[in-house]
Design goal:
The chain is of the alpha+beta class. A hairpin with a 4-residue loop joins strand 4 and strand 5. The two termini are about 15 Å apart.
């Protein structure tokens, strides 16, 4: 049985701790070669021009018991935030996040949960990239530099989570904070443009406001963060643990 009042205290504490890391000033933040985002006043989680630090490990915890098949708040929020089509053909259109359903008929078990880039500690997509376009920041966020990506799709083959998409179609009405390009590969960025401003990813915010509160985001290296407390207290799983990639996305009650 989940104590929801305790959950609320966890969430409030986590928000306070997350926002404590906010700095002040306007700066540009380099994600990789040729990729730059803007940080806005009073919201920069990192000081101006300060590189991402390995002292932080951004991660997400998904409580599968709170995730229902009919709820797609996280998918809708990601699509709106980053400018990809939520109703596109998954064979040809980008999917930064998708809902999966699993069933075990013999015991009557079924579950629904979101799947996205797992932001592995040892990402195979980075290992196989011939240009260095796929890279991992020191804080654990895995990204693609659109200026270096040649569309070879080696990373798509290497990813065991089928979490990357190749952009086939011409793009219109792009978001300035989420650069995309036909002929390149893309995937969930953990809303790095929001994280660098001290704000939770769009999917987490939407799940709190419009969904079931199944998603938690925070710093695994901070033992006082909500996500660290939950991972220490409750049994959690990583998808394909046998690969020993140590994903930053964890699942509870799966």
């Amino acid at each position: 049985m989940v104590n929801h009042s305790h959950d609320k205290n966890f969430i409030d504490t986590n928000r306070r701790e997350f926002l404590k890391k906010a700095g002040i000033g306007v700066s540009t933040i380099a994600l990789g070669s040729g990729v730059t985002l803007f940080a806005y006043p009073h919201a920069a989680a990192r000081a101006p021009n300060e590189p991402a630090s390995a002292s932080v490990r951004w991660a997400m915890l998904i409580d599968v018991n709170k995730c229902t098949p009919e709820c797609t708040a996280c998918v809708t929020a990601c699509s709106k935030e980053n400018g990809w089509k939520p109703d596109g053909d998954p064979r040809t259109d980008a999917q930064w996040i998708r809902k999966l359903e699993i069933k075990q008929p013999d015991i009557g078990y079924q579950a629904s949960f979101p799947m996205m880039c797992q932001h592995c500690e040892s990402p195979p997509c980075v290992d196989v990239c011939p240009t260095g376009a796929s890279f991992k920041r020191a804080d654990g966020i895995v990204l693609v530099d659109k200026h270096s990506c040649i569309g070879c799709r080696y990373c798509m083959v290497a990813c065991p989570y089928n979490a990357r998409s190749f952009i086939h179609e011409p793009l219109n009405d792009q978001r300035a904070h989420a650069p995309r390009g036909k002929g390149t590969v893309e995937s969930c960025t953990l809303c790095v443009h929001r994280v660098d401003k001290g704000v939770e990813p769009a999917c987490v915010e939407s799940c709190e406001n419009d969904g079931k509160g199944a998603l938690i985001f925070g710093d695994l290296n901070d033992e006082n963060s909500e996500i660290s407390i939950r991972v220490a207290k409750f049994a959690t799983r990583q998808i394909r643990e046998d690969l020993e990639l140590n994903p930053g996305v964890r699942y509870q009650n799966l």
